[in-house]
Write a structure and sequence with these properties.
4 strands, alpha+beta
């Protein structure tokens, strides 16, 4: 594995571990970290899932889903065309969650998958095909 891939995998792994802790105040953007600024985009994705995913439609005390967990994030190869378009980082991610129930029991579970790409210092999100939720390997 090329050295830059190893560093990217380590950075993604460190970020995945940080997703388990309480959200911190947004850190200042680090120009040396290709994944800098991704956390707020992942939180926006979660908000979007809560608002739009079919199993989150029925609300209990204002919430439709709970137990959100980013189960994997994996760096993706950037194509030559993406490089020409200014893409400097690309990740695929999987998130699981479950429907909120009035009695507190676990509701129907769901999952979502997204690509995040960074160009011009800004992240963009696009829907991705399902991946293995543990490894992010293509299915």
């Amino acid at each position: 594995m090329p050295a830059y891939r190893s560093l990217a995998v380590l950075a993604v792994a460190a970020f995945a571990l940080s997703a388990c802790s309480k959200p911190a105040a947004p850190a200042a953007s680090n120009p040396n970290d290709p994944y800098s600024g991704l956390e707020p985009e992942v939180l926006a994705w979660r908000t979007s899932i809560e608002a739009d995913h079919p199993i989150c439609k029925e609300k209990v005390k204002g919430k439709g889903c709970e137990a959100f967990e980013v189960t994997c994030k994996a760096a993706q190869e950037i194509t030559p065309d993406e490089t020409k378009a200014g893409v400097t980082a690309k990740i695929v991610a999987a998130m699981t969650f479950s429907a909120k129930t009035a009695d507190g029991s676990q509701g129907k579970s769901g999952s979502a998958f997204a690509y995040f790409s960074k160009a011009g210092g800004k992240w963009a999100r696009a829907e991705a095909k399902p991946v293995n939720p543990s490894s992010c390997a293509p299915l």
